[in-house]
C-alpha cells in the first residue's frame, strides 16, 4: 500500500513503454482520475476489470502498486457511499481501513458497509505480473530482483517488447540475467532456437519446464517447418546439460546435509568419547547433559529477552558450566563408587538420566520449549537456483569443528591432557609418578560433561528443546563412539561425519526411518568384523 | 545327586523346592480367592487382579531369562525386550488371525489395519499364523533365530562387555524403528490389538484370564527349572567360568562362544515365551515393547532382585512392577524419580540385590547355596 510511491530510476516508466505517446508528460494523476481508475474496477465483468487493471498500470500513478496488491489480496473494497478503501486487518466484525486515494486512516468500519472487489484466477495472474512489472522500476535492487523472479514464464507478447528495453537499462547483473531468461522463455515459446542459448545452464524450475516443453516437440519452430526437430533437439541438449548440473547440485546438497547431521552426531558423541573412550566410564546420562545445555540456552534467552544472539553467545560458557557441574556431581555422587564395574555404572547412570528427565518435566514443563534462532544465524546462503545452504546448520558445523580442534589441543598440548592420557594408560604407574588420579578423573569427567553441554547449546538451534532431547541422541552417540574406535577422538570425528553422510545418501531411496535402521544394522555388523572400531587403540592401552 | 539326570537335578536343591512351593501356593491362593470367594468380598481376587498377577508372572519369566545370560554368562543384554516383543508379536499375529471376519471391516482374512492400508492380500510372513501350533512354535523360533544369528556373529568376534550391551541396545532400537513403520505389516504405531479369543476361549471372560494366569505360572515354573538345570549342569559351570575369566576358560580349551551362543538362544526363547504369555493378558502388542527403556528396566528388575540367583530375578520383577502399578496409579510423576533412584541405590548400595540380603541370612544360619558360593568365588 504505502510503498507505491517510489521514483522511477530510469526516467522511463512502464507507461512510456506501453503507450509512448499518451502518458509521456502526464502529471501525477489527480484524485479525480484516480477515483475514476478505481471506479472502473467496480464492475461485474471480469474482462472489464482486466482492462481497468491495465489502465491502472498505465496510469503511472505512484499508488498503483498498492492498489494492485490490495486488489490481489482482496483488501481493496468499496464503501456504501462509493469511496474506495484498503482494509488493513480483516479479523472480527469491525475492520480498520484507510482511504485508497489519500492513504489516511479512516478508523474502523463494519464489514457490512464494505463491498469487496472480487477477482478470479485469471485476474490474479494478471495482477501478479502487473505488480512484477511495476516493481521492475523500483529503486531497490531487492524488489527488482523479486519481480524479475516472478516474471519467469509469465512474459507474454505485450511485455516482450518493453522488457527488452528494460533489460538494456538494468544495471544489476543478476536482475539482468533473470530478465533475459524470462524473455528467453517467451522467445522459446515463440519457436526461436537462439533463445535456448540464454537458458542453457539455468537451474530454475521454470526454465526447465519451458525447455522440457520445447524438447517434447510441443513448440512450433518459427523458422522453416523442418527446423522443428532442430529446436526440440537443442532444447533436449540444453536440458540434459541442466540435469547434469542438477545432479552435481543434489550431490553437494546431500553432502552438506550429511555433514550437518554428522556434525550433530560428532557434537553429541565427542563428550562421550572422552568419558567413555578415555575414562572407560559408560555415562548413560550423557544425553541428559546435552539436554541441560539446551535448557541453559533457553533459560538464557528467557533471562535476556529480545537479545537472542547475545543470550546464545553467553549460553556457550553457561551451558558448559552447568553440564560440567552436573557431571562432577554425577562422578562424585555415584560413579566413583562403581569403579571397575562398567555394567553397574551403566545402570546407575541410566537411573540418573531418568531422574534428570523427570526433573525437567516436573520443574519446567513436559512440553518442548522454543529457543529462538538469532538473526545472524537464520536464513540461508543461496549458491544458485537449486542449491541453498541454511546458515544455522553451517554455524553448527563450524562450531563442531572448532570444538573438536579445541579438544584435540587440550588432550595433546596441555598438562591436563598429558595427565589424562597417563592415567588412561596406566593408572597405578601414573599415580606413583605423582599424578593425582582422582583429580584427573573429576576433571576429565567435567570436561566430557561440559562438552555435552556445549553440544546442547548447539543442538538447541537445530531441534526441539524438550525433556526427550537427550534420549534421542544417546544411542546414536554410543554408535558413533563404538564405530570410530573407543578412546580415539579422531575416530569419533570420522565416524560421526561419515555416518551422517551415509544416512543422508540412503535417505532418498530408503526413507528416513529405514536409512536409520540400515545404518544401525550396518554398525552392528561392522562391530562383529572389527570389534574395536575404525581406529582401534594399539598396544597395551587396548587391553584394558 | 550326581546320579540323577541333569534335568532332574534342580529338584534336589532346597532353593528350587522353596521357589516352586511359593509359586504353586501363590497360584493356588489366587485361584481360590478368585473362584471360591464371592465377588464383593474384600478378599475376592477380581479378574483384574488375576490378570495383573498373570502379567507379573510373565515379566518374572522374562527376568529369569535375562538373569540366565547376565547372572551366569556375564552378558548384560540391553535388548532382551526385543525377544520378548518378537514372541509377543508372534502370539499377536495368531490372535489377530483368530478374529477372522469379526473385525471392524469384516474382511474374512485380512486384519483390520491391512484393510485400512488398502492391502489386498496377506504378506507371506503372515501365512500359517492362523494355526495355533505353528504360531506357538514361532513364539520360540523367531526370537531364537534372531538370537542365534546375532549371537553367532557377536560371540564369534568376541564382542563382550559394554560393547555387547551397546549393540544389543542398538538392535532393539533398530527393531523398534522398523516395527513403527506401517510398511512392515505389523500394524505400525498401533501394533496388534482387539483380540477376541485364544484356542476358542473368549479372551474377555474371567475364566480364560484365570487360565492364562495359571499357564503363565506353569511356564515360569518350567522355565525356572530349565534354567536351574542349565546352571547346575557342567555346561553351567563353564558358563560361570566364562563370566569370571573368559580368556582363561578359552585357554583351558573350551569353545567359549558355543556355550555363550547356546545359553543366549535359550534365554531369547524364554523371553519370547514370556512375551507370548504377556500379550493375550494385556490385549495389545505394539512397538513400544522394543523401546530400549523397557529392556533396561528388565535389567533393573534382575539387579534389584539379585543377579545369578534366578529366584532373585522373579522377586525383582514382581517388586518393581508392583511398585510401578502403585506409583503410576497414585502419583504418576513420581514413578520415573523412583525408578531412577532405584537404579542408583541398587547398583551402589545393593550390588547383590534382595536375594543377596536373603542369602546373607541363610549363610548365617549355616546353609550355603551352591550358586551363591560360586558367585563368592567370582567376587
UniProtKB/TrEMBL annotation, chain A:
Task: Note down the stretches annotated as region Disordered.
Answer: 1-28
For bias type Polar residues, the affected ranges are 13-22
The protein's location, in the record's own words, is:
Cell inner membrane
Q: Which GO terms describe its cellular component?
A: plasma membrane
Q: How does it sit in the membrane?
A: Multi-pass membrane protein
Q: Which BP terms does GO give this entry? A: amino acid transport
UniProt KW keywords: Amino-acid transport, Cell membrane, Membrane, Transmembrane, Transmembrane helix, Transport
Among the GO molecular function terms of this UniProt record, one is: transmembrane transporter activity
Indicate the principal place this protein occupies in or around the cell.
Answer: membrane
List residues traversing the bilayer. 255-282, 310-330, 342-360, 394-411, 440-459, 479-502, 509-527
Name the chain's protein. Urea ABC transporter permease subunit UrtB
Q: Whose protein is this, by species?
A: Billgrantia pellis
Q: Which gene encodes it?
A: urtB
Automatic annotation (TrEMBL), chain B:
Coiled coil region boundaries: none
**GO cellular component: a single term:** plasma membrane
The name this protein carries in UniProt is Urea ABC transporter permease subunit UrtC
GO molecular function annotations of the record: branched-chain amino acid transmembrane transporter activity
Membrane topology (UniProt): Multi-pass membrane protein
Q: Where are the transmembrane segments?
A: 69-92, 104-126, 132-155, 162-180, 210-227, 259-278, 298-322, 334-360
Record localization: Cell inner membrane
Q: What is its main location?
A: membrane
For this UniProt record, the keywords arranged alphabetically read as follows: Cell membrane, Membrane, Transmembrane, Transmembrane helix
Pfam families given for it? BPD_transp_2 (PF02653)
Amino acid at each position: 500500500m504505502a510503498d507505491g510511491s517510489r521514483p522511477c530510476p530510469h526516467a522511463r516508466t512502464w507507461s512510456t513503454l506501453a503507450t509512448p505517446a499518451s502518458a509521456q508528460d502526464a502529471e501525477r494523476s489527480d484524485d479525480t482520475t484516480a477515483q475514476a481508475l478505481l471506479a472502473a474496477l467496480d464492475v461485474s465483468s471480469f474482462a472489464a476489470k482486466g482492462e481497468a487493471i491495465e489502465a491502472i498500470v498505465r496510469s503511472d500513478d505512484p499508488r498503483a502498486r498498492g492498489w494492485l496488491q490490495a486488489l490481489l489480496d482482496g483488501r481493496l473494497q468499496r464503501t456504501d457511499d462509493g469511496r474506495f478503501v484498503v482494509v488493513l486487518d480483516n479479523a472480527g466484525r469491525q475492520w480498520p481501513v484507510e482511504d485508497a486515494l489519500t492513504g489516511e486512516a479512516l478508523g474502523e468500519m463494519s464489514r457490512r458497509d464494505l463491498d469487496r472487489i472480487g477477482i478470479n484466477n485469471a485476474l490474479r495472474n494478471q495482477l501478479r505480473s502487473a505488480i512484477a512489472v511495476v516493481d521492475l522500476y523500483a529503486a531497490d535492487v531487492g524488489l527488482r530482483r523479486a519481480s524479475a523472479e516472478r516474471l519467469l514464464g509469465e512474459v507474454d507478447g505485450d511485455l516482450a517488447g518493453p522488457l527488452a528495453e528494460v533489460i538494456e537499462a538494468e544495471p544489476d547483473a543478476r536482475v539482468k540475467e533473470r530478465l533475459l531468461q524470462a524473455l528467453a522463455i517467451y522467445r522459446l515459446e515463440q519457436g526461436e532456437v537462439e533463445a535456448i542459448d540464454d537458458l542453457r545452464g539455468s537451474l530454475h524450475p521454470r526454465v526447465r519446464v519451458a525447455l522440457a516443453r520445447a524438447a517434447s516437440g510441443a513448440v512450433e519452430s518459427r523458422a522453416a517447418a523442418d527446423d522443428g526437430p532442430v529446436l526440440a533437439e537443442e532444447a533436449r541438449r540444453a536440458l540434459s546439460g541442466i540435469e547434469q548440473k542438477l545432479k552435481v547440485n543434489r550431490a553437494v546438497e546431500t553432502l552438506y546435509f550429511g555433514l550437518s547431521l554428522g556434525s550433530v552426531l560428532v557434537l553429541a558423541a565427542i563428550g562421550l568419547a572422552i568419558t567413555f573412550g578415555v575414562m572407560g566410564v559408560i555415562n548413560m546420562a550423557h544425553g541428559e547433559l546435552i539436554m541441560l545445555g539446551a535448557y541453559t540456552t533457553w533459560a538464557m534467552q528467557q533471562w535476556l529477552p529480545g537479545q537472542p544472539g547475545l543470550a546464545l553467545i553467553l549460553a556457550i560458557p553457561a551451558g558448559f558450566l552447568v553440564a560440567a557441574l552436573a557431571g562432577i556431581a554425577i562422578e562424585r555422587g555415584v560413579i566413583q563408587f562403581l569403579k571397575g564395574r562398567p555394567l553397574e555404572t551403566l545402570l546407575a547412570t541410566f537411573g540418573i538420566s531418568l531422574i534428570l528427565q523427570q526433573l525437567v518435566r516436573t520443574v519446567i514443563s513436559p512440553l518442548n520449549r522454543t529457543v529462538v534462532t538469532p538473526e545472524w544465524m537464520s536464513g540461508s546462503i543461496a549458491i544458485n537456483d537449486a542449491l541453498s545452504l541454511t546458515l544455522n546448520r553451517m554455524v553448527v558445523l563450524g562450531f563442531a569443528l572448532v570444538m573438536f580442534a579445541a579438544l584435540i589441543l587440550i588432550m595433546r598440548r596441555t598438562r591436563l591432557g598429558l595427565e589424562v592420557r597417563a592415567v588412561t594408560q596406566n593408572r597405578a604407574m601414573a599415580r606413583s609418578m605423582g599424578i593425582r588420579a582422582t583429580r584427573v578423573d573429576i576433571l576429565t569427567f567435567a570436561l566430557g560433561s561440559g562438552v555435552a553441554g556445549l553440544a546442547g547449546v548447539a543442538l538447541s538451534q537445530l531441534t526441539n528443546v524438550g525433556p526427550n532431547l537427550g534420549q534421542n541422541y544417546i544411542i546414536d552417540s554410543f554408535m558413533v563412539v563404538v564405530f570410530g574406535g573407543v578412546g580415539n577422538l579422531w575416530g569419533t570425528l570420522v565416524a560421526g561425519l561419515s555416518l551422517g553422510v551415509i544416512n543422508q545418501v540412503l535417505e532418498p531411496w530408503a526413507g528416513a526411518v529405514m536409512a536409520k535402521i540400515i545404518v544401525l544394522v550396518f554398525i552392528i555388523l561392522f562391530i562383529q568384523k572389527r570389534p574395536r572400531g575404525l581406529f582401534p587403540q594399539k598396544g597395551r592401552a587396548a587391553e584394558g | 545327586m550326581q546320579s540323577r539326570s541333569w534335568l532332574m537335578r534342580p529338584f534336589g536343591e532346597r532353593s528350587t523346592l522353596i521357589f516352586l512351593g511359593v509359586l504353586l501356593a501363590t497360584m493356588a491362593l489366587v485361584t481360590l480367592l478368585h473362584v471360591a470367594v464371592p465377588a464383593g468380598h474384600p478378599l475376592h481376587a477380581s479378574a483384574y487382579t488375576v490378570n495383573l498377577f498373570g502379567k507379573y508372572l510373565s515379566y518374572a519369566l522374562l527376568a529369569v531369562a535375562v538373569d540366565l545370560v547376565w547372572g551366569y554368562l556375564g552378558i548384560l543384554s540391553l535388548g532382551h525386550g526385543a525377544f520378548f516383543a518378537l514372541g509377543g508379536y508372534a502370539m499377536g499375529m495368531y490372535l489377530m488371525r483368530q478374529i477372522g471376519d469379526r473385525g471392524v471391516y469384516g474382511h474374512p482374512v485380512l486384519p483390520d489395519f491391512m484393510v485400512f492400508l488398502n492391502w489386498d492380500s496377506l504378506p507371506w510372513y503372515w501365512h500359517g499364523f492362523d494355526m495355533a501350533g505353528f504360531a506357538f512354535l514361532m513364539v520360540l523360533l523367531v526370537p531364537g533365530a534372531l538370537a542365534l544369528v546375532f549371537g553367532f556373529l557377536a560371540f564369534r568376534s568376541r564382542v563382550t562387555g559394554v560393547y555387547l550391551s551397546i549393540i544389543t541396545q542398538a538392535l532393539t532400537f533398530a527393531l523398534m524403528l522398523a516395527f513403527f513403520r506401517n510398511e512392515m505389516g505389523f500394524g505400525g504405531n498401533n501394533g496388534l490389538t482387539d483380540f477376541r479369543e485364544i484356542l476358542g476361549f473368549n479372551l474377555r471372560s474371567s475364566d480364560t484370564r484365570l487360565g492364562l494366569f495359571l499357564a503363565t505360572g506353569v511356564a515360569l515354573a518350567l522355565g525356572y527349572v530349565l534354567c536351574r538345570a542349565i546352571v547346575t549342569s557342567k555346561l553351567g559351570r563353564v558358563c560361570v567360568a566364562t563370566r569370571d575369566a573368559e580368556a582363561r576358560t578359552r585357554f583351558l580349551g573350551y569353545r567359549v562362544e558355543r556355550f555363550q551362543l547356546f545359553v543366549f538362544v535359550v534365554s531369547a526363547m524364554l523371553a519370547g515365551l514370556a512375551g507370548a504369555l504377556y500379550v493375550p493378558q494385556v490385549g495389545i502388542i505394539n512397538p513400544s515393547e522394543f523401546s530400549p527403556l523397557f529392556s533396561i528396566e528388565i535389567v533393573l528388575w534382575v539387579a534389584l532382585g539379585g543377579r545369578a540367583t534366578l529366584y532373585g530375578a522373579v522377586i525383582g520383577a514382581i517388586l518393581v512392577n508392583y511398585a510401578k502399578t502403585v506409583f503410576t496409579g497414585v502419583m504418576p510423576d513420581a514413578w520415573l524419580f523412583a525408578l531412577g533412584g532405584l537404579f542408583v541405590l541398587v547398583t551402589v548400595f545393593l550390588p547383590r540385590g534382595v536375594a543377596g540380603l536373603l542369602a546373607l541370612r541363610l549363610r548365617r544360619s549355616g546353609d550355603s547355596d551352591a550358586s551363591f558360593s560360586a558367585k563368592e568365588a567370582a567376587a
